[in-house]
Amino acid sequence: MRLMHVATCAMALGVTLGTALTIQTHAQRRPVLPQIKVPHDYYFREMYLPQVTSGPSAVAWAPDSREVVVAMQGSLWRHRLGTHEAVQIVSGAGYAHQPDWSPDGRSIAYAWYSHDAIDLKRLDVPSGESTTLVSNGAVNVEPRWSPDGSRLAYVSTAFEGRWHIYTIDVHDGRPGNPERLTTDHESDLPRYYYSRFDHFLSPAWSPDGRELILVSNAGHIWGTGGIWRMEARAGAQPRQIHDEETTWKARPDWSRDGRRIVYSSYLGRPWNQLWLMTASGGDAFPLTYGDFDATAPRWSPDGRRIAYISNEGGNTSLWLIDVPGGRRERVDLAERRYLEPVGTLEISVVDEGTNGPLPARVSVTGADGRGFAPDEAWRHADDGFDRAERPLEYTYFHTRGRSLLTVPAGRVAVEVMHGLEFGVARRQLDVARNGRQTVEIRLPRLANLRADGWRSGDLHVHMNYGGAYRNTPANLAFQAQAEDLDVVENLIVNKEQRVPDEAYFAGRAARPAADGPLLAHSQEFHTSVWGHLGLLGLTSHLLVPGYAAYANTAAASLYPHNPAVIEMAHAQGALAGYVHPFDALPAPEDRSVALTDDLPVSAALGLVDYMEVVGFSDHRSTAAIWYRLLNCGFRIPAGAGTDAMANFASLRGPVGLNRVFVQTGTDATHEGWLKGIRDGRTFATNGPLVQFSLDGRGPGSEIRLPRGAHELKMRAAVASIVPIDHLEVVANGDVIAGFPLAGDRTAAKIEQTIAVTRSGWYTLRASADRAVHPVLDIYPFATTSPVYVIVGDEAIRSAADARFFLAWLDRIEAFVRAHADWNGPAERESVLGSLARARAVYQERTQPR
User: Fold this and answer.
1) CA neighbor of 677 nearest in space, from 602, 577, 761
2) What confidence tier does 802 reach under pLDDT thresholds 50, 70, 90?
3) Which candidate, 723, 798, 767, places its Cα nearest to that of 620?
4) Bridge partners, residue 407, by sequence
5) Which of 135, 210, 715, 796 is the most buried (most CB within 10 A)?
6) Nearest-CA neighbor of 244 among 501, 554, 496, 527?
7) Contact in structure between 476 and 645 (CB atoms under 8 Å)
């Protein structure tokens, strides 16, 4: 079959269909708890909402200060201090979080996640029975009993999907009507990560029951806010007693003597620690120290100790600290007594080709949809899922090849995978009560791209980013090994003032384990006006501050814009790429939507070394803009990055969900890896493995032909762990051939000829129309970088696409000229100068060839 490349006038039809398809696939795979109407849900979902972790996640004291109740593994556990035993007191088809023990000792309030909502429940301690206190389809969290046990304060999204403080009267275990205490207020502040509406979090009672302390961002742009006091009545006006830029985890607690408040703070440091201040504010000081997080503090009723959660061992753990004195004690919860019948499951994962143990990702699910993990493993959960497939989100952990875990007696489902070059294995098992079920999972190899000189990596990972766990290079390398990656680019980045991994920057890549993946600590430059940048291979220093255009800070200027940032990175020999580019197609003519991303400027100036064509964005929308840039003659390789916060418990896919394969041959160095990306010898994917060549020349190659008509031999292949719906050759932005896939639609090999009469670029892409498990993304998608074909001396040009970007530059220039917060006129002129140079490039490319 011969394929003729026919030019088309516009991409409008493809754009329209792509947009409609994006809406459809996004609706299919909805986020966890989508009723919350607050921006940047991937931050508050992990940093604020309760998470199921293998270790403890929250703690509350019994009235006698001799016992605690702990949230752990999605259940509640009662523990008498001085013993090693934890007794399960809550179970069921959901997850229990955030317990609070009533002053009379008879009730434990807790948050219960199931059926797409978080309710509040009350456990009657003597009987062990649970009843519902609040069930309204909203998200209700952080329950706290009043000192007399008659009221419960909590946070709810019941009003307009926003965070507000409520109370409810509880008499003889029966709830009254909820009452919202905080007043809704729309702020005019230019908040980026937070809603324009003020929020109110983390209530705790004064000892006399008349007041609450809470966290609010009222009057502040960055962070979740400082600490406030207010009377515990509807409409009362809070007053701020401590001004600090917190990020979701302050969780203040009032001492029983009424004089002191303990809270968790990072205050200019990489890690959260416990701090003390007076109940009226004053000057706070740290109570704990260390390169780890100390969070969720709770005073003991006798005022002698504070219980808190720490991740200093990597996983979460429960600790006590004496006040005063500072003696710390880790609470051992090794002996478990379960509420329902359980058994033991032993899983071994084996490489079918070598018969050796294989690190892998493992998911274990009970009949009710709850997930399970070993006590020592880091438990993770997907942050979105298809409700038609499962009642609760997919959960998983990483194994080194053998894992032992406790599961409910009865039927359990096991799923195991190891990257994209091995098949996915699934088993249904019956575990007997008090029995031990052993299963060996053998994974077959589907492809061996390493043997052909390809290495895979994730260009966009954050080792630590405010999650429940504390990650290290060794553990990140283990996560990557379980996902079958060769390289991980840990992009050091801020979250407000916090920069967790700054101390790891060394200016060179390393292997934490001799036979493990290569790990590089690089940087993400965080400028949300211009678009985020990945800076790979910095050799001298991080760029500080790592952001610009942050309102109300000394970095409020629009300078350095991305061209200036990239030039600073290039001076260190680094690559620069645009990361998670577009969630929807930019439309320069739509002035109701801001358009400031300066990717077209950097591309015109020859500064873009790669794009995350597959990343935390909409792949089709991103590819559509990439095609337009390629049509203007800019050679931009395809990259891929997950934007995985690798220490999160709930995250959008593990490290390597989105990965790039780079052909480096026998060169296993970081320098060889970066050169392969720069040269465009890549393909980007979240599932399908695509291979493509023209006349034996692969991605990144240039084929030069004399003027006239030619035929090029095309080879294309795909192998995928999930079915795909489309396998297509794209030339100059147009699909010139589509190949139907037979059988299970996971593999194909094609050899044909392509007729060529003009210069152009060619890629192979594969995709599905909807999300397909276990690809934890909006839909499977893969693309090669282009093969470039030059016929005669004709340049690759598209006047229509150049005009598209000229309209885009008009939008940027209007924004720049309206901005007033510059550090002098030279900065403004530098940005306008870059725009002028880019404009000249596009103007030239609107002219006839």
Assistant:
1) 577
2) very high
3) 767
4) 343
5) 796
6) 496
7) no
pLDDT in tens, 235-282: 999 999 999 999 999 999 999 999 999 999 999 899 999 999 999 999
Distances from the Cα of 97 to the Cα of 251, 615, 818, angstroms? 15, 32, 48
Contact 191, 245 (CB under 8 A): no
Q: What's the whole-number mean pLDDT along residues 730-751?
A: 96
Name the band, by pLDDT with cuts 50, 70 and 90, for residue 848: confident
The rounded mean pLDDT for the chain is 95
Measured CA to CA, the distance from residue 363 to residue 393 in angstroms comes to 11
Q: What is the per-residue pLDDT across 419-475, written as a single tens digit (0 to 9) for each?
A: 999 999 999 999 999 999 999 999 999 999 999 999 999 999 999 999 999 999 999
Q: Which residues contact 571 (CB under 8 A, 6 or more apart)?
A: none
Spatial contact of 838 and 600, defined as CB atoms under 8 Å apart: yes
Spatial separation of the C-alpha atoms in residues 811 and 822, rounded to whole Å = 19
Q: Compute the C-alpha angle 75/81/83, nearest 5°.
A: 90
State pTM to two decimals: 0.96
For the chain, how far is it from start to end, CA to CA, in angstroms?
31
Alpha-carbon separation of residue 759 from 8, 452, 697, 707, 795 (angstroms): 14, 29, 16, 10, 7
Nearest Cα residue to 353 out of 421, 295, 260: 421
pLDDT single digits (tens) 665-676 = 999 999 999 999
Residue 809 contacts residue 817 (beta carbons within 8 Å)? no
Over 779-821, what HEC string results?
Answer: CCEEEECCEEEEECCCCCCCHHHHHHHHHHHHHHHHHHHHCCC
Regarding beta strands 380-382 and 95-101, do their DSSP bridges make them parallel or antiparallel, or are they unpaired? unpaired
According to DSSP H, which parts of 454-511 are helical?
473-482
Do the Cβ atoms of 438 and 407 come closer than 8 Å?
no
What gap in Å lies between CA 410 and CA 415, rounded to an integer?
17
Q: Which one, of 333, 251, 331, lies nearest residue 299 by Cα? A: 251
Question: Where does the pLDDT of residue 42 fall: very low under 50, low under 70, confident under 90, or very high at 90 and above?
Answer: confident
Residue 512 to residue 346: CA distance in whole angstroms: 28
Using CA atoms, how far residue 119 sits from 153, 761, 788, in Å, is 13, 55, 57
Q: What share of the chain is helix, strand, coil (3-state, %, to 5)?
A: 15, 40, 45
Structure tokens at 646: 């690798």
The CA-atom distances, in angstroms, between 781 and each of 190, 296, 578 are: 35, 40, 18
CA distance 88 to 81: 15
Q: Residue 174's CB: how many other CB atoms inside 10 A?
A: 10
Report the distance separating Cα 563 and Cα 527, nearest Å.
12
Element (H, E) at 678: helix 670-678
Q: Are strands 533-536 and 518-525 parallel, antiparallel or unpaired?
A: antiparallel
Q: What is the DSSP letter of 503?
A: G
- List CB contacts of 49: < 8 A, sequence separation 6 or more: 33, 118, 139, 141, 650
One-letter amino acid at 675 equals: K
Residue 528: pLDDT band (50, 70, 90) is confident
Q: Which two tokens stand for residue 721?
A: 């762990």
pLDDT tops 50 at residue 11: no
**Are the C-beta atoms of 482 and 515 separated by less than 8 Å?**
no
pLDDT at 728 over 90: yes
Here the tokens at position 253 are 């607690």
% of the chain exceeding 70 in pLDDT: 97
**247 touches 230 (CB < 8 A):** no
Give the span between the Cα atoms of 159 and 662, in whole angstroms.
Answer: 49
- 317 burial via Cβ count (<10 Å: 0-12, 13-18, 19+): middle
CA dist 638 and 406 (Å) reads 43
